[in-house]
Structures are given as C-alpha cells and as structure tokens.
Amino acid sequence: MSEKYEVVVNNVLSGLKQYEDLYSKEYYLEFEAKIANMKERIQESLKEGRMLRIGIVGEVKAGKSSFLNALIFDGEDVLPKASTPMTAALTKISYSKESIAKVVFYREREWQNIEQLSMEYDEKLKKLYKEYISKKQSKNPFNIKKDVREQKKEDENMPFRLRNDIKKQLEEKIPMKLKSCKELTELFNKSKVDLRSYLGKTEEIHINDMGRDLQNYVGAEGDFTAIVQHVELKVDNDNLKGIEIVDTPGLNDPIVSRGERTKQFLGECDVVFLLSYTSQFLTQEDISFMCDSLPREGVKEIRIIGSKFDSGLLDDNRSKDIKTAYSSSVAIYNNQAAENIRKSLISSFHKDALEKISSSLPPSYVSSMLYSCSRKKEKGIEYSEDEKHIIEQLNFHFSDFTDDRQTLLSLSGINEIRKKMKEIIDRKKEIIADKNRTIVSDNKTVLLDILENINIQVLDNKRQTEVADKEQLENNLHRLQDKLNRMRREVKNIFEATLVEAAVLLNDMKVNIDIDIENHLDFGVESKTDTRYGTRKTGLFGLFRKEYTEVITYNEASVADVTANIRKYIVACKKYINEELKKIINIKKLESTLKDSIIGAFDMSSTEFNENDILIPLSIVINKVTIPDINVEAFQYQGTIENAFTSSVVKNEDIHKLRMIEEKVLQEIAYKIKEEMDETRDKINNIMGELSASFVDDIIKNLTSNIDRLKKQIEDREHFIQKYSELSDNLLKYKQLVKEMEI
Question: In terms of C-beta density within 10 A (0-12 exposed, 13-18 middle, 19 or more buried), how is residue 120 classed?
Fold first, then answer.
C-alpha cells in the first residue's frame, strides 16, 4: 500500500540521518534540499483557500497588459503599457475588497549589479566611440567634428555626448542587458526622490485611481519605476475572485534579476496563457523559445492565445468581407500552430511542455484594441489615435465592416476567453490536485538516483570495513594521493583539450551563424494591379471630357514578413547555439574521459585497488559543474524594421529599401550574437579553469574524508558492518517507498 509523500520523505530523511556517518555528507544534503523544495511547493499548493494561479506569458510587446486590461478591467487602461522592455513591471494581481498595491523594490545587491552593468555600458560605448573616431580619421581627418560633439575635458570619465543617430549606431553593438541597465540608472538619476533609501524595502499604496496611482511606480516616467522589481496588486474586481494572475514583463526580459523572479512566479502557476502576436504567430522557432523559457515543473495547463488579431485580419489580402477574412485567418493560424507544434514534437527535448500546448489546440484569438473600441462605442467615448487608425484600415479593407458595438465585441474574442477562464476556475480543485501529483512524480527519479548513489558507497564501504585494516587504508590513501598528484598535469591537459575543442567548434558556429543569414532573407513580393477610372479634357480648348480606364501594375511586400524573418533568425540561432554548446561542453563525456584517464593510471589487477575510491568522489565533484546558456535578445530589432516605414505594406522602390534594411539588421544581429558567444566562451574558460585547478584537490578531500571515516569504524568493525548491512537493507525499502509514494 502506498504512503502519503510527507510520511515517506520524513521517514527516509530520518533514516538517512541516523546513518549519516556511513556515507558522504553531500548526498544527504542534496537529498534534504530536494525534499525541502518538494514539500515547500506542495504545502504552498495545498494552503486552504489558495487561489488558482494563472500566468500571462509572451515576448515583450505581445500585448499582455492590453489583454489583461480587456479581460479583467473591462477595457480600462488600468495596467500601464510599458514604453520599453526596461520599464515593464512584473505584476501579481488578485482580489481584495480594498484596492492596494504592494511595491517591491530591488535589493541593494541587485541594484549594485544593475549599476555595474550600466558602467559596463559606458565603457563599451567609449570603446566603440574610439573605434568610430579612428575609422573616421583614417577616411577624413578634417571632418570629425561634424559627426561627433567633442567630449568636455572635465567629463573624461563620463560616456560621450553623441548625436542621437551616431549613438544609436554604436548602441546596436552593445548587449541589451547593458542598455537596459543603463536606462534604469538614467531613470534613477532623473528621479526627484532619494531612491537609494528605498532599496530592499516594500511600500504599500492605497489606490483610488488605478491607472494614475500606478504610473508613478511602473510608468515610463514614474519617479520609482527604475527600482521596482515587481508589484503585487490587490483589486476590488469580481473577475479576480478565486484567482491570482501573474503578468510577466516578457520571457525575454533583459533585466536578469527580474527575469529570475518571473520564472519563480511562473513555477508557482497552475495555468499559463501563452500570448503570441498573430502577425508572427507561433512559429516553430517561437515554440522552441517559449518551451526553453518556461519552467520545467509546475504548470499543468497551457492555453494559446493569438494576440492583436486585428493585425492578423489585415494581413489577409485575399478576402473582401470581414466574415470570410475572419474564418480564413483563423483556419490559417490554426493550421500553422498545429503543424509547427507537430514538427517541434519530432525534434524537441521539451516534449512535456509541447504536449500540454498541443492539447490546448485550437488557439483562441483576441484583439484587445477592438474590445476597447466596443466599450468606448457603448459609452460614447472617442477612439484614441491608434484605435481610429485600425478602424479606418478595417473599413478600407473589408466592404461589410462596421464598427458597431456588437461587431467589435465579437471580433475582439474577449468574451470567449472569459468563458474559458470560468471553465478553468470551475476545475480548480482538479487542476491543483493534478499539479501536486506531478510535483511528487517529477521528484521521484531524482530522489531514487541519490538513494542509489548512497547505496553504492555503502556497499563499497562495508566491503572495505570487512577486509581492510587501518594501515592498509592509510597506505591506500597515500598511494591514491600520490598517483592523483602525479596526474595533475594530465587532468589539466584534459580540461585544456576540452576548451581547445570548444574554441574551434565555437568558431565554426560563428561561420554557420553568418551563413544562416541567407536562409532568412526571402520575403514574399506580390504583383498587383489597380484599375483607375476618370475623365480627361479633350477637344478645342478642352471643352469636352472623355472617360478613360488606366491599369497600374505594382509590386507589394509586407513589413511583417521581414520582422518575422528577423525573429526566426534570432530564435534559430539561440536554439542552435545552446544545443551545440551542450554538445561541445558535454559534462558526461568530460566525466567519462576523466574516469578513463584516472582509472587507467592504476593497476586494475591489484587486489588493493578499488575503483570506487576514485569514481564516487569524482562523480560528486564533476556533478557540481554548470555551463551557462547563451541568451539572445530579440525584441529591439523588430522596432528597427517597423520604424523605418510608415505603413505595414511597402511598394515598388521601397521593397529594395526593405530588403537592404533586412540584410543590415540580420548582419548586426549576427555580430551581436558572436560577441555574446565570445563572452560565453570567457565564462566557460573561467569555470573550467577553476575546476581544473581544484579538481584533484577536491577528489583527494572527498577521498580522505571517506577513508578517515573507515579508519575510525574499523576500531569497532563488527558494529559498523552490522550498521552498513542495516542501512543497505533500509535503502532498498526507502527506494520502494519513494517509488510508491503519493500526494
């Protein structure tokens, strides 16, 4: 009969504690930490009256805040829309009779890190400026001042005062995380408030006017915006009863500490709404990116939402009526989502997440803007400029479109999402119970693995206790120490060889990143015709008029196709680099090479040699190694393309301009990616260098600790042999209990 998880883990932990002098302490600490994490998550989940947690996820500018304003706040702009990714706040929203905002500011250490990265931005800009000047001098030594304002002598340690166009040009070569931190420190310095005194604190605000009162904390020009890590918002709104919503800044958040907090919050969520901009809807690369960014555990259900559906409708150039366009667009996006998820399932490592996404098909589609229009229509409020533009575009493209309240409401899709939200809330108990079962299931494999490692060491120690004496153990230790010390050079060579191989492969990857640009340059160019009807003056003195028909042929291309190419390229690069990096620095392969090398140095035929004396401490040391991922930021490039054109569609000679800008941006992205690869290479060099220097010492330390333990136990041989036997028997029971435990 299976036992409840709490009974099982408490009994196992107590049993292991009783015999902790028989095996390496690291195993016990690891087991204890895993259990503590599991218990904390389950207990939090089982709290009486706890709310269903719903995460709103998507890339920066996917329309998350607008979506929540429509869904929860009836189209009111309660949650400020961030003007930049840097001012996008992580927000938790829940119900309360009294509207209160709890503002959590960055801790002192977090802010110091932001300031340090801001200074790195300054240094990077200076370096790029010097390179720029040098280049200009070589071309025209007499004309530099036309392009650059001279830096004042008294400001030598400050970033250069550059013309905006030149500064923008140089900034394109600076990592987004540095620019983000620079922006935050500039906001910090502009503030009229002594912000430093708020670091590490929280502030509770009683809210009267939500949009106005929050602006000072999360708005682009807010006094406190720079130092706000996240906001916990409690609102008197019936739509929030029984739920807690996590509104994230974006999976590609450039602020590291805030991104980590986002992942922490998402790990606590039961359901995630995954927003993807319909004009660039759920590409295979997007799916890979999202799976890579979402937490591995916790989330039980994922719902896909195509946001900004008004843009998706306008992308349909074939349909002349709105109903046909709606049906056609939904069918296209549904097929696109299903096919891309199917392809991802074939090759991806994230099958669990993909299966959750697949089970939620077909997606839902929303236009927060059209919902806002419907509410304003009902209340007799004038549209905003953006809303006027979208209504004009819909009127122009579709002959049967009217902006009456019901049509706008239907096209917005918000009521459909509300129905799905209610269905989810009604299944709250089922979802939470299923989540808890998953938490237990996810931890079983890890716990069983630790127990097996303990068992291997226990059986080996028991054998040595049975046959060895103190002198023999001491001699073995000296022999092992001597051999390991003589192998320091060989071990160092293995690490260096790994790094050399990595450097070569990283250079090859750089070449492939440049080559792959060619695969992301194509975009559709459509030939179209317009027929113009008119009259022209004819006859003497132009007294007569003659009707004429003129057919004009022109080419047309979509800017959205290019931004999609940019997006695809970035995600493809990120996926390629991170997957290849795991192959290049293969920890399992490195461990195997080190094992073969070290074990091969010993006489395997000797009865005095026990390979576990080496293998167990080696495994403990090598498993502490972590290799950093490369994170490529995508969001700043989309704006570069879109801001270059006044319309979402370009014609004739502008198509060439679009193509030139696309190629230039892709090359800039490749440059930045390769720069980040160099930074990652340096990090790997540091990690491996530190490990190489301490590797033998750490093994000897673990070895010595275990042999010292055995020497003491030999003094009471029979007693400890019995204890080893008891623990070995118990470990078999513990493993069975863990296998069968339930929530």
Answer: middle
Is the bond preceding 362 in cis, omega lying within 30 degrees of 0? yes
User: Cβ contacts of residue 247 below 8 Å, gap of 6+?
Assistant: 56, 64, 65, 68, 79, 90, 91, 92, 93
The separation between CA 412 and the C-alpha centre of its own chain, rounded to angstroms, equals 28
Evaluate whether 560 touches 280 at the Cβ level (below 8 Å): yes
DSSP 631: -
Q: What is the pLDDT of residue 407?
A: 92
- Over range 561-578, report the average pLDDT: 77
Burial class (CB in 10 A: 0-12, 13-18, 19+), 50: middle
DSSP state of 160: P
Is the pLDDT at 143 greater than 60, yes or no?
no
Helices of type H across 468-533: 470-486, 488-515
Q: Are the C-beta atoms of 291 and 274 separated by less than 8 Å?
A: no
Collect all residues with Cβ–Cβ distance below 8 Å to 568 and sequence separation of at least 6. 283, 285, 520
For residues 737 and 4, what is the distance between their CA atoms, to the nearest angstrom? 10
What region does 568 belong to: left with phi over 0, alpha with psi -120 to 50, or beta? alpha
For residue 108, the tally of other CB atoms under 10 A from its CB is 11
Most confident by average pLDDT, 44-58, 280-294, 594-608: 44-58
Q: Give CA 226 to chain center in angstroms.
A: 21
Q: Residue 296, Cβ neighbours under 10 Å: how many?
A: 12
Tokens of 171: 């900034």
Helical residues (DSSP H) of 230-283, grouped into ranges: 256-267
Close Cβ partners of 106 (under 8 Å, ≥ 6 residues apart):
114, 199, 200, 227, 228, 229, 257
The fold of 51-106+200-426 is Rossmann fold (3.40.50)
Asked whether residue 641 carries a pLDDT value surpassing 80, the answer given is: no
Question: Which residues contact residue 60 at a Cβ distance below 8 angstroms, ignoring those fewer than 6 apart?
Answer: 82, 85, 88, 249, 250, 252, 253, 635
395 Cβ contact list (under 8 Å, min separation 6): 401, 403
β-pair partners for 302? 272
Q: Let me know: does 310 contact 394? Beta carbons within 8 Å.
A: yes
pLDDT in tens, 509-547: 888 888 888 888 888 788 877 777 677 767 666 666 777
Q: What is the pLDDT of residues 472-514, one digit of tens each?
A: 777 777 777 776 777 777 777 877 777 777 778 888 888 888 8
Q: Is the predicted pLDDT of residue 370 greater than 90, yes or no? A: yes
Collapsing DSSP to helix, strand or coil, 642 comes out as helix
d(C-alpha 376, C-alpha 695), whole Å? 67
Mapped onto helix, strand or coil, the DSSP state of residue 159 is: coil
**pTM of the complete model beyond 0.85:** no
Q: At 84, is the pLDDT very low, low, confident or very high (cuts 50, 70, 90)?
A: very low
Residues of the chain by 3-state class (helix, strand, coil), percent to 5: 65, 10, 25
Residue 206, φ and ψ in degrees, nearest 5 = -85, 125
How far is it, in rounded angstroms, from Cα 566 to Cα 669?
Answer: 9
The Cα 391–Cα 403 span in angstroms is: 7
- φ, ψ for residue 506, nearest 5 deg: -65, -40
CATH 3.40.50.300 in the chain is located at 51-106+200-426
Q: Three-state SS for 282?
A: coil
Q: How confident is the model at residue 412 (pLDDT cuts 50, 70, 90)?
A: very high
